[in-house]
Structure formats: structure tokens, C-alpha cells
């Protein structure tokens, strides 16, 4: 794990309120892991958890949306500004368990950790299901890694008008992976469990420390509450307690 100040080499708005942040340096991460980022001295006290969108030999890329004061400050970063990075953190996807015919299902900014996953899955056939309210982003980045892309927008501006879950038939797949709004992930998980299909869920939750010490980000599992940051963020769907 590293904790250091690194240079910003790109911070670009790719859709309304959605930014791609690229930081220079030598980084390691498994798909599904995240880093804690901070770019302020007098702003919010705590860093913010941002999932890894991609990694190459001399940089790491994050995708984030403006949802509060911290991410608003991220959006003002310029090239050669410094950002504090700590990670990689959390448990990522177990690639040995993601084989065969695979469906990757995203909702909104939940697409962020799934590009790196799609790139790293080997010897499998992958379909991407992505849902957005209206504006779409990052879809083209998946094209070289997946067989088919199925798109849904709530306003019908692109693809299917409705929810991405309308398009998914879990019975066609060996494994389903999802990340997005909690209500979407709960529905995907239920659909998969009904068909006895393996499903992995990348949970999104508010975090404070990122290392499992503060217990802010607990989620319900059949074995009791677990820490999203330390025990997750990736969980086996059959282990989760679904409230919706």
C-alpha cells in the first residue's frame, strides 16, 4: 500500500458532473479495489474513496461524479496539481471465479470499477449491460473487451427506455457482476439467485477511514455486519442480506 502525493496528468469532465482523473505514478490494484484521495488542506477532514477505473505502467485512472464537497474540490484539480493517494484498499474481484459467459451490469457511476475488470477477465465471453438516467459515458472504453453492449436510459434518449435490469436474463450467463445504485444491485442479485447464477456485487457506501477501523461503512450479510471497505467492497451476492 502507498500513501503519497502524486501529480495530476488529466482531470477532464466527460459528462455533466462526471470526471476522469488520471494520476501519474507506479500503481498496483486488483479490479474492484479503491484508493482514498484527498486534495485539500483546509477542506473536508477526511479523504474520499474512489474506485480504480484503470491502471497502466505509469498512471492510474479514476472516474468520479460530483456528489458533495470533496468531489467538487476534485473537479477543480488542474494538470500538475498534487493529490494525496492511499491504497490500494479493499478486496477486489476474484478473477478465478469469473469465468465462462459473464454479464457485467452497471448503473450510472457504477460503471467506474468495471472497465478495469472487463480488461482483466481472461478466456471468457463478456456482455456489458449499462444503465443511465440520460447522459452516457465510458461505454466506448469497453468495446475491445466485451462481445456485446446493451444500453438502457431512463428517458429513452439512447437504447432501451427504462432500466438496465429490463434487459438482463441471468439464466444466459455463468456469472453476473454488478455495481451501481443499491436498489439496482439488489434487483440484479435477486434475479440471479432465483436462477441459481453466481453473482458478485461491488458495494458503494460512505467511508471514513478506508481501512476498516471506524465501522462507518458496514453492510448486512448473513454472517452479520461487515465492513464495505475492508471485507468488501466486492461481496458474493448470496452472502448479502437484501432489504429492498
Automatic annotation (TrEMBL):
UniProt entry keywords in alphabetical sequence: 2Fe-2S, Electron transport, FAD, Flavoprotein, Iron, Iron-sulfur, Metal-binding, Pyrimidine biosynthesis, Transport
One Pfam match: DHODB_Fe-S_bind
Job description of the protein: Responsible for channeling the electrons from the oxidation of dihydroorotate from the FMN redox center in the PyrD type B subunit to the ultimate electron acceptor NAD(+).
Cofactor notes: Binds 1 FAD per subunit.
Official protein name in the record: Dihydroorotate dehydrogenase B (NAD(+)), electron transfer subunit
Binding residues annotated for FAD, in chain numbering: 48-51, 70-71
Residues annotated as domain FAD-binding FR-type: 1-95
Self-association and partners: Heterotetramer of 2 PyrK and 2 PyrD type B subunits.
Cofactor(s) needed by this chain: FAD; [2Fe-2S] cluster
Family matches, as InterPro entries: Cyt_c3_hydrogenase_gsu (IPR012165), Dihydroorotate_DH_ele_sf (IPR037117), Dihydroorotate_DH_Fe-S-bd (IPR019480), Dihydroorotate_DHASE_ETsu (IPR023455), FAD-bd_FR_type (IPR017927), FNR_nucleotide-bd (IPR039261), PyrK_electron_transfer (IPR050353), Riboflavin_synthase-like_b-brl (IPR017938)
Pathway as given in its UniProt record: Pyrimidine metabolism; UMP biosynthesis via de novo pathway; orotate from (S)-dihydroorotate (NAD(+) route): step 1/1
Origin superkingdom: Bacteria
Ranges annotated as spanning the membrane: none
Family matches, as SUPFAM superfamilies: Ferredoxin reductase-like, C-terminal NADP-linked domain, Riboflavin synthase domain-like
Cited Gene3D superfamilies: Dihydroorotate dehydrogenase, electron transfer subunit, Nucleotide-binding domain of ferredoxin-NADP reductase (FNR) module, Translation factors
Binding annotation for [2Fe-2S] cluster: 209, 214, 217, 229
PROSITE patterns with a match to the protein in the record: FAD_FR
Family: Belongs to the PyrK family.
